[in-house]
Structure formats: structure tokens, C-alpha cells
Amino acid sequence: MPVSKLILLSGICVPFLAAVVLLVRKSDSGRSLAVAASLLSLFLVAVTPGRDPVMLLPAITHGVLVLISLLLLPRQDATSKSLAGMLILAGATQLCYSASTLQIEALGWWLTLTPFLANMFGEHREQRWSQAFLVLSALALTIGAWTGSVSLLIAAVVLRKGVFPFQGGALAKFEHGSLIPSALLFNSHLGAVLVTKMPDHHSLDWLGAAALASSVLLSIRAFTERKPRRILAHISLSQASFILAGLTLKHSTGVTGALLHWFVVSITCVSIACIIRAVEVRVAGAQDPKSHLGLAVHTPRLAVFFLLSAVALIGLPGTLGYCAEDLLFHGALEEHLILGIALPVATAFNAINLIRLFGVLFLGVLPKHVPNVPDALPRERWPLAIAACALVGFGLVPRAIMHYAIPAAKAYGVSDSESH
Q: Which of 106, 247, 282, 420 is in the most buried spot, having the most CB atoms within 10 Å?
């Protein structure tokens, strides 16, 4: 076996081995073991030579997100079983990123569902609808991988990504499931991974149109929601549809923007999910607040981290989100005028919804029934600070990350000459 494959295989297997140890030993130092295994896996994945350039940045990003999620997981959620589930999810996702065939990709999809189907994050009966969508998507991919049916592969993407009108499963997963693992599962963007590995087909144009409609409709639908989890779910689904729409473009600028947006959406949505969960464990009733919580007075750090993630997600200048959306919009305008117009509209609606969510959690007068809640703990503060620095730092010096995004867009099969 070549050395590169051996290193990559080791990076994939480390989380699975650590998960087995956690399930067998059930020690009090489970978080430390999980973090160490995640860090080793990330290192091995990052240093593997000869990786597919399209999957290199998503693989590293997801490894970092797993590490951040393990650190930010509240103490009551960090059982040996749940930590093992997150490690299984991490290893299975890396298997999907490195899969050389659709059959291996299908195996990875099934493995990512294992922790949820085995109730490793707790039993949530309301998730049956969500589990059904995920199982159907994996089943469609499995059959499509062995039969070569592009229609089934497209169906797998639509069901996994929650493209409108099939968003019900993803919404249920965010609302009723364990929030941080659910956000980690969704923001692996395995539907987008499958699109990059599918053969070129005219059905991808229809998928791009469906993703376009989904991004706008879900951003509008979020106006009717008041629960933080459901608002975040709609925003995440809408932004994920941006990625799908961008990947279906035959334009290097648009694809580069989609790959950068993939990075931004993953970091910001997982960070916001972690902050919402941190608020939930501090304040009773935060899952369905009846009024503004006014937490910025007592939790200014959480408020700042939330706001930085939000403005990066909607593309504020000075953040990487601005660079990603600028490239995505320009590529879309040159290829499809409607797409280029619809994406800024959806972004504007998502911006309003994020500010609404920020207002509900952090603005207003602190209710009398809310105690003096603690601000971000050190183990919460540093991971969120690293995520914020990445979003702002790469936004100020985008050339550093463009070094990976441009070759990835070319490897995906588009070039500047194809855009004319």
C-alpha cells in the first residue's frame, strides 16, 4: 500500500478506534481522549500527500469543526456514548471525503447515520421523520452507486441536503435532536461531496435550479419561525443550497466561490449551533423564548462570537464570507442571470433572520426569571475565538485560502476558458 494511502487510512481509522475505547471503558476523561483522537486524525488527514484538491479543504475544515464541537459540547451532553458517536461521525465523514468510488461513498453515508440510528446522542422520538429522510437518501445513493442511475444520485442529494420541499427531515433533526451533532452532520455537506463526484449530466442543471428556489423559499420561510433552532435550521438549509447551486455552474469563478462558501457556512453554522446550545444549558426556556432574553449583559463574549459568525455568513466586507459570496454572485451572473439575482435576495433575507435571532438571544432587558448566567468558559472561548479569527483573517488576506480554492475549482473540471 502506498504511504499516502496508509496515512489517510490511519487518519480515518483513529476516530473509530477511539470510539471503541470510549464505549468499552466509559472513563471520566472521555472528552480528553476524544479531543486527542480528533487532533491526531486531523493532522494525518491534513499531511496526506497527493490528496484530491477538491476534497482537501472540506476534509480539513470538518476535522477542525469536530475538534471545536468536542470542546464546546456541554458537560451534560458529553457522555462517553455521545463522544463516541461524534468520533464515528468524524471518521465516517472523512471516509466520504476520501472515497474513490461511489460504493465507498455510500458506505460512508451509512456510517455517518449509525450514531443517530443507534441513539448514541439520546433517544428523540420526534426524529423518526428525520431518520427516515436520511435512510432514504443513503438507500438512494447505494442503489444509484451500483446501478449507475443519475436520477437516484440526484434524489440522494436532495434528501440529504433538505432541498425544498424535502426540508422536513433536516428541520426535525435540528429542532428535536442533539443540536451540535446534528449541525456537524448537516455541515459535512455530503450532498455537495456527491455532486463533485457525479458524472456530468443535464440533471445537474435541474438540481441547480431546485437549489436556487430552495435558497430563496427557505430564507422567506424562516420569517415565520421564532424558535432559535428552527431559525438556524432554515438559514443553514438556505445557505447550503447556495453551495449546491454554485457547484452546478460551469464557471470557475462561481465554483471557486461555492468552495469558499462551503468553508464559511460550515464554520459559521456549527459555531452558531454551539452558541445556541450553550445558551440553552444556561437559561431554562431558551429553546422557545417568549420574549427577548437580553443575555448580552451577562454573556458579552458569546454575543460577540455569535455576531461575528452571523456577519461572516451574510458576507460582511472584511470577512471571508464577503469574498466567497462576491465570487459566487459574479459567477452566477455570468452564467444564469436569475441565479445571480436570487442569491443576493436570499442573502438579504438570511441577514434579517440572523439579526432577529441575535436580538432574541442577546438584546432586550434580561427577564427577572433569568439568573446571573456565566459567560463563555475557557474551553468554549478559545475554539470560538479560533473560528472567528479564521473567518476574519482569511477575509482580510484571502490569498492564503485561494491557494487551495482555485486549484480545487480547476480539478473539479472547470476553467476560465469554459466560462466564455
A: 247
